[in-house]
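Sample pair:
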Amino acid sequence: MLKRSAKAQAAENSFPYPLLNDAAVLASFQGWREQEYEDLLAVQRGVLSEAQFREKYCWTTAIMVLDMTDFTKCAMQEGALASLLKIVEAHQVCIPALNEAGAGFIRSFADDLVALFENPSDAVGAAFEIHARMQLFAERKADERQSVSCCIGIGYGEVMKIGPNFAQGDEMNRASVLGEDIADGGQTLVTHNVFAALRERQDMTFKDAQHPAAAFPFYRASPAA
């Protein structure tokens, strides 16, 4: 079992304010589900071992985090409704592409989309298809409003199947940093795990990249010419 140190227990006992230890109440704030909170609290108390928790929740998946460009700028310059319409347009284009590529899970949040795939090949292929469709959609728009483009980060590896995205862990964090903070519109950035799995592919290329916001290696993926 995961044992709590006497120092940690003493620190909690001496904390002068109440701690929220009710799993149902914690779950009502929609961070994790009640059972997930119960199991995390059990680990915290040393009742459930880390190995038992990992056996229950760990799984391997490819994670795509898609962000939309200039959403805040659009809201300021064109108004809130115009910015919401851009999200709708992106969803109309991207979600069919994700479904066709075999995404087993898709979730939207504000101007982000999260999608999970069985393997990184399908995730990267979906990213390329999304960029191509978004560009074509922008070229054929009937009005003069500027279309958004997508910034995509992709990770692959073992994560915890908890939370709203069913992917809590390091590769989810890295994919989020790449998609939300680093990638430019039309770019697909991938973690080292994705690169390692696909580096021998002849239909795509990978270029080593760097950014001050990423304290880990990552690569820009592109379709082979």
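The CA atoms of residues 25 and 198 lie 43 Å apart.
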